[in-house]
Amino acid sequence: MPFKEAVRAPGESVPPARSSFATLDARYRYGARCGAPPREMGDLMRKLFVPIMAAAMFCAAALGGCGGPSAEETIRAELNAGFEEAMSQSDKIAEGVESSAGDEFEMLGIDSDEYVDSFLEGLAFEVGEIVVDEDAGTATAEVAITAKNMTKIVDEWTTQFNAYVAGIDFESLSSADELYKAGGDLMMTVTDAAEPEVTEHTFNLAKDDDGEWTIDEDEVSQAFSVAMMG
User: Fold this and answer.
1) What is the dihedral of CA 225, 226, 227, 230, to 10 degrees?
2) Smallest Cα–Cα separation from 4: which of 74, 63, 88?
3) What is the spatial distance between Cα 27 and Cα 38, in angstroms, rounded to a whole number?
4) DSSP class of residue 3?
5) pTM of the model
6) What are phi and psi of 172, to 5 degrees?
7) Of these four, 112, 152, 193, 208, which has the most CB atoms within 10 Å of its CB?
8) CA Rg, the chain, in Å?
9) 107-117: per-residue pLDDT in tens?
């Protein structure tokens, strides 16, 4: 089963949560001084960015039997090829982000390409032990995925932005744009500084009637959700 069938197509949009920005702007206008802006803007980043990231990562990768000296070597070669293809999809990810959240990223002063490059920095994988049961036509593969964690990035950004907001003299601000710009600059800083983390995953495979090894598509989506969201 091609990996691309397991996830959302990169061009498929995620509804933008513009109400979060409207609320933030309203609170600015009334001089509210609370922790709500970071929470709302952080939730927006999660809603708009991560689903597109998970979808685009596997849009071109596929796993299928192609013959080889052994089932283990065949599976390892196909997994390596699929993951390597997935690692090269930063342009499709950026296109997906721009399509679904371009206005919001522009409001924050964040360049989609620059942000994707920062978030994907250090992204890697390693295929470990593969166990094959030829009689049952099944196999398991251990894969380590190294990636930055969006949840931790947003949590750290929220903490720092709360501290920033607490020290603001709202009367000195000329417009809410200054808040957006500060939030965007801080998001880039926090994302740049985030350290990639390793998560371990087990994929289940099965041999179909044509003798091709197929992967559980739900496990693929779940693995990258865990790796990138925690």
Assistant:
1) 120
2) 63
3) 12
4) G
5) 0.74
6) -85, -10
7) 112
8) 21
9) 888 888 888 88
Alpha-helical segments (H) within the chain: 18-29, 36-57, 71-87, 90-108, 112-120, 150-166, 177-193, 217-229
Find out whether 142 and 129 touch, Cβ atoms under 8 Å: yes
| DSSP bridge pairs for 132 | 139
The one-letter code for the residue type at 3 is F
Structure tokens at 7: 């996830």
Q: What is the C-alpha separation between 105 and 80, in angstroms, rounded?
A: 33
Is 2 buried (19+), middle (13-18) or exposed (0-12) by CB count in 10 A?
middle
Which stretches of the chain are assigned E, i.e. beta strand? 124-133, 138-147, 197-207, 213-215
Query: Looking at the DSSP assignment, which residues form a beta bridge with residue 214?
Result: 206
Reference 52, options 113, 111, 114, 9; nearest CA is 9
Digit-coded pLDDT (tens) for 5-23? 333 333 333 333 333 444 4
* DSSP-assigned beta bridge partners for residue 131: 140
- Strand pairing category for 138-147 and 124-133: antiparallel
Consecutive H or E run containing 26:
helix 18-29
